[in-house]
Amino acid sequence: MPKVGIRDVAKLAGVSTGTVSRVLNDHPSVTDELRARVRRIIDDLGYMPDPSARSMRSKVSRLIGIVIPDLTNPFFSELVQSAEQAAASHGYNIIVMTSFDDAAKEADRIGQLTSRKVDGIILVPSNDFHTLKLPKALPIVVVDRLMPGYSGIASDHRSGVRLGVEHLLKLGHRRIGFISGPRHSVPANDRLKGYLDAMGQSDDDGQIQASQLIAEAAFDYESGRSAGNYLLARARSERPTAIFASSDQQAIGCMRAAHDLGIPIPAALSIVGFDGIPLSSMTTPRLTTVKQPIQKIAAAAVAVLLNKQPTPGVGHPILLDCELAEGETTSSPQPD
To answer: Its Gene Ontology molecular function terms (predicted)?
Structure first.
């Protein structure tokens, strides 16, 4: 079957190719009746515009690149999906690339996207972003892991953690353990500050005063399980009555550690996670978590790239509020 072209559509509709082009681009000068007629013929013929040709004519690729550290992390997967939905609502598609949390691979991925003439990039930087130099000629929005010297969009990690720890304090917990993220991670450090804020400790002395109640870990399940074992494998009078984990994956790993040690949740241990990934609502008991506004972050990033909302100023990132999603893993502490 010969390929259907824009001239075929124009001939059958009795209009010029320019009118068909204006219909395809939703130009306001086209009447509703004419738009509907041309669209019907496009559907009947199965005409598909050539995106590369349209890009050459308009100098706009209608492509947005997104670079993330790890596609297996549920938070980043949901961020990509939300970005794709937001981009599609504006008539754009996305290209996803993974840096594997490596600065050299990250620079390579950005270079590849630049050569493919994307209209902008959403970037979740690697933790080793200090060596990264971003191209100045291409719009780039940094999300989640904010970088000094660049505009960005993220959850308010610090106040989000403070919200979750304050929930535990209101329930009566005082020995509250904390599973932090990696020390070189910007969000992890912000979340640690939120914990210290809620516990009434300063950044300077907090880690020293609470060192027995803080366990550093990666954001994944197994690391959370190991951190949970560290915090819980001690006498009942010394172990925490509640634990705040810096990610839902950590929290679920910690729940497994408590199960293996015979510590019932929430009767003898309360647990709160962070992120609000779909898996948090599927655990037994259902995890209480601080939910990040992932869809809002993605939508804002796309809107900034497409000039639908102002670009945040350097040093003045857009910080979006988190919310507490109460599940079944928190209750008042039992007496020692």
So the answer is: DNA-binding transcription factor activity; transcription cis-regulatory region binding
